[in-house]
């Protein structure tokens, strides 16, 4: 028998915390098996897409300058389109992050006088400035694009009457955020997104339905474009980059939507034809290839964390047993000290920057202080083991990532050890 506990001891994890972790893990075998099956399915899906598009060694090279006839870039976009079952895709290192990808999709597909609508409540924090909910230079609002929002009902279901009432002749595009983001609402399953899109398209077929797919890719065996979404948008330093992509974002969808985005990203007249890939493509291809398994590892970490903290009596979203639709795990500590101790535990488990101690700070794009733990190979990557939380009630922490499950496990055990050491949690686990 390998004495794993001795290894954990070297990281400051007590025998009691280690054994509590093992008891939780033992109960999770069937869940992990299910996650592995989804990963296997999606792995084959990705390989199939690469084979269909004739990915070759030459695709892994890059272009410079204008980037005309970039075989690797154009083929990768075909691979994404094939995977998402869409007409086209835009997958570029020039898309700097998820917010940029979403802003690009919105700004290129909306025109002055149009209205944007969110039928799933408040969008992700950084989109408030894109839309102009919080005044901001260059927002959609400054360009004469208005915004309406319909919140989810108290039980998390769609407010169909409210949505019907909010749709007018001006409504051009509906944005549906799959993941909960910095909220404690449930994440939407692809099936639920499909129901919502069907309802909207029944009112008006020509309303563009866009899904913010951040953190959702590869968690299920279908994607929102399989249930009627016109566009899915996401970040390559989350799930689909597999931890290897050092930058980038994607938009996959109907040809016209993707074309609009391409003309906005580069220039009218140039569109997808320019945009050198430099030397970055092999990380995009290999990251996508690894992504189903990497996402599964992150999911296992999230399920493990949910079960640990649920057992300790903290509110967790999703709960320990419910089905998963993104890789984010929210744990509500009810006090700033809990959020801080958790994030510092995640940081202490990192391979990069384990010796620094994260503190709350005023982060651009967010309206309260935020603490972030991110000891990552790719700066800010949240498919890597990371945690963050706004220092504001209900004092919830959002945990995600872990390229390998053992790393996620170490991180979670470190958070618990921290909370025990600071007496926020009692180590008398036998009472539970
Ligand atoms: C991360 C995220 C974004 C923004 O992506 P960044 O890369 O951080 O700019 C938008 N929406 C959701 C749901 C996200 O999780």
Mean pLDDT: 96
What series of H and E elements makes up the topology? Answer: HHHHEHEHEHEHEEEHHEEHEEEH
Instruction: Pick out the low-confidence regions.
Output: none
Tell me how many strands there are.
12
> Tally the helices: what do you get?
12
Strand content: 5-15%
Radius of gyration: 22 Å
Largest sheet strand order: 1-7-6-5-4-2-3
Main β-sheet, in a few words? 7 strands, mixed
Residue share in helix: 25-40%
Give the cofactors and ligands.
pyridoxal-5'-phosphate
- The CA-CA distance between the termini, in Å, is 28 Å
Q: Which of globular, elongated, flat, extended, rod-shaped describes the shape?
A: globular
Question: What does this 3D model show about the protein?
Answer:
The longest helix has 31 residues, at 281-311. Helices cover 39% and strands 13% of the residues. The protein has twelve helices and twelve strands. The chain is an alpha/beta fold. The strands form two sheets. A seven-stranded mixed β-sheet has the order 1-7-6-5-4-2-3, with helices on both faces. Helix 8 links the parallel strand 4 and strand 5. It is globular. Pyridoxal-5'-phosphate binds at residues 97-99, 102, 124, 126, 177, 179, 181, 212, 214-215, 235. Residues 97-99, 102, 124, 126, 177, 179, 181, 212, 214-215, 235 line the site of pyridoxal-5'-phosphate.
